[in-house]
Hints:
The complex is a heterodimer.
Chain A: H1 10-34, H2 50-58, E1 65-68, H3 73-78, H4 83-90, E2 114-117, H5 124-138, E3 144-149, H6 156-167, E4 172-178, E5 181-182, E6 185-186, H7 187-190, H8 196-202, E7 206-211, H9 215-230, E8 236-241, H10 262-270, H11 273-283, H12 289-312
Parallel strand pairs in A: 1-2, 1-3, 3-4, 4-8, 7-8
Antiparallel strand pairs in A: 5-6
Chain B: E1 4-8, H1 9-23, E2 27-31, H2 39-42, H3 47-51, E3 56-58, H4 63-75, E4 79-84, H5 94-101, H6 104-107, E5 117-122, H7 137-141, E6 147-149, H8 154-166, E7 171-176, H9 177-181, E8 183-187, E9 199-202, E10 207-211, H10 214-228, E11 233-237, E12 240-242, H11 247-256, E13 259-266, H12 271-282, E14 292-296, H13 315-326, H14 330-344
Parallel strand pairs in B: 2-3, 2-4, 4-5, 5-7, 6-7, 10-11, 10-13, 13-14
Antiparallel strand pairs in B: 1-8, 6-12, 9-11
Amino acid sequence: MEKHVTQINDETRLGLYREMLRIRLVEEAIADRYGEQEMRCPVHLSDGQEGIAVGACMALRKEDKIVSTHRSHGHYLAKQGSLKAMLCEIYGRAPGCVGGRGGSMHLLDDEVGVLACLPIVGTSVPLGVGVAYAAKRKGEDTVVTVFLGDAVMEEGVFHESANFAALHSLPVVFVCENNDLSFYTSLEVRQPDRPMTDIAKAHTLAVCELDGNDAVTVYEAMNGAVKKARGGGGPSFLMCNTRRWREHCGPRYDYELGQMTEQEFEALRADCPMAKLGAQLREAGLLDDAGEDALRAELGKEIEEAFEFARNAPFPELETAGDHVYA
Amino acid sequence: MPEARSLNGAEAAREALFESMERDPDVFMMGEGIADHGNFFGTTNGLMEKFGSERMLEMPVAENAMTGIAIGAAMMGQRPVMSLQRVEFVLLALEQIFDNAAKIHYATNGRHKAPIVIRLVVGRGWGQGPHHAQSLESVFAHFPGLKVIMPALARDSKGMLIAAIEDDSPVICIEHRWIHFAKGPVPEGHYVEPLDGPRVRREGSDVTIVATSYAVLEALATAEALDKVGISAEVIDLRVLRPLNLDLVKKSVAKTGRLVTIDTGWITCGMGSEIVATVAQECFSELKAPPQRLGLADYPTPSSRSLVTDYYPTPEALIDCVGEMVGAKSEQMEAARADMAEHRGGLPHDVPNPTFQGPF
Lengths: 327, 360
């Protein structure tokens, strides 16, 4: 993949930090309140992986589209999906982004290009490619970002989709979040020891492997991939290495399930995308304790208000449960 | 309505595609071998020349992604018509059909639509065998959110396919190979045959025969033979398998008191089972005899012509079934069988007409 030339400015770096912090605080708030048994749907939390969502979405325009997976809160929020609509959806309330029909695993905000977040592994990949195909047919310059996990590389549909995207030089960026785990099964048990980027390369995609916990790196690589896609240069594949912190599904940290020791978990958590960028910002004199506190207070207020809104929102009417089966 | 000419089902489907693509630039075809020398069983002749490869999109052999790509494009307002030369090919894409095509409108609270048409062909004759002759309509008809249609008459092959392409919901259109050969009146130009439910194709008073696709044509021929021996059969063409509207069937059973269903697939969990269950629930007191179901023999489709002699529900089986229900005399049934044998004219049982020379 061509070396990106974007020089990231201070405002963007601060923006990346802010968006990561926002996602982190939302996920923590969900985890803290999950035990209240009011959010009665499965939640796949994404703390620890914010660098990829934020770095990728910061490089997109509002009208660009994304599709995502079961672990989509970060992507949805980074693309500026409505927080209130997301929380209402998780609480099963009528103003939820899909009216309580989907829950956490079916987020959507088509006003800002969050087209579909779907839980079956690989299922949204060809949808994203189809969206890109439609854009190309209509002569639009929309770029479609397909977020996928490392396990999607084991699904045939990835190869089928990448093959078609490459064949037609479609404006797609595949962003692979390699968090090493599918449920609790590590990569080495599921795939042979070979660079995953080789798979994408075999489909003639432009590839690069990068530290997914470095939002600036993700942003810069994404900028290059998006520019290439928008210019008709075809699809790219960014493999972003990261780790998820919580259990596959639910509010607990992985060590609380005995999946690892607390020491191992702390070592893993030390490689925090937010802390990494935060330290750089502080070193550059762009962030200090007062700034951090102000940011946390501002975001905390927004999040608290959104939870309040969701908890008080009405449930959808039972009589509407059978609506929208046919268009 | 413009004047009708006699076309076969394949020619009628071709006109549907032509009219739809001509009228709406968002309609495009996608599939495997959609414009090769066989022209998709004669349903795509001349379309490549007319519309070009952009709108006659030859796809990689990757049915699952193909289906997802069609759905993604449809979400953006395109109207893809995906065509697969055998039903079995789509088995590699069921996840996309059941999870996304059937649910994207519902699961997005009405925000997205997936106006795709998936044309699937059921093979029969000349030893199509276990993987090339399955009629799996009841599998698709299980899912809310899908529309499932099986045209029988040539007029429907065109009008229902146009309706399917213009429908905002995903439509599975199952085309039996042998309806491609069957001729019937087809109007010129653009017209729509609504996807609203069954039609009575022949009125009768002694028994209601509900059939799908090619079985409708056989049922109509058999009904003629039965009529000559004094048995009056009403034949209903099911047409739309989901959403399933059985009002017409119930009305007919109220008149005849007897019901026979003919599936182009297997009997167990087939469309006939659904129809009989509904009639038993809602028309129990109207019934003069236990409803009967006909369909494929309960094993995979063998290839050898000697093994498929009794595999498909034959006119003879239908005559026996109806005769027993109405208490016909053996002479009546013999006469009706002889009439059907004459109608068939010694044609081998594994070909649809005298001109058929294989291989499909």
